[in-house]
Amino acid sequence: MPMQSVEREASIVVCSTCRHDADNRENEKGERGGELLYRELEALAGQAEDSSGRVSLQRMPCLFACSRFCTIHLRAPGKIGYVLGNFTPDRESAEAILAFFRAYRESEEGIVPFRGWPEGVKGHFIARMPPEGYVLESG
Question: What structural domains and CATH numbers belong to the chain?
């Protein structure tokens, strides 16, 4: 599969091929959980008229976190990135993801204080990745 160029901006990358749940790849309509989560995010992001700007959503087939479906990757140039999973493909999950994303986007280095985390993302973090050319100071 060839790579596709996208804007270098704060974005939510959604694994479009994630399972629907532990027992089923797809729901009764043949839809994958990742695609359903993407649609929920898209619908909410499209409704949100906030001063902080639009939400960049991107699809990626398989983020290789299959046991932690539905999975997303938050990224932005020069900021720490995060992989989160174990979401249900519903509006509640999408609302929590978008709330965290807005705080992430506004942060200087991608670090959102725990007190600013929406309840719906707590316990969903899989990994954090330093931006290219950086690591956090030890200490």
Answer: 11-129 (3.40.30.10)
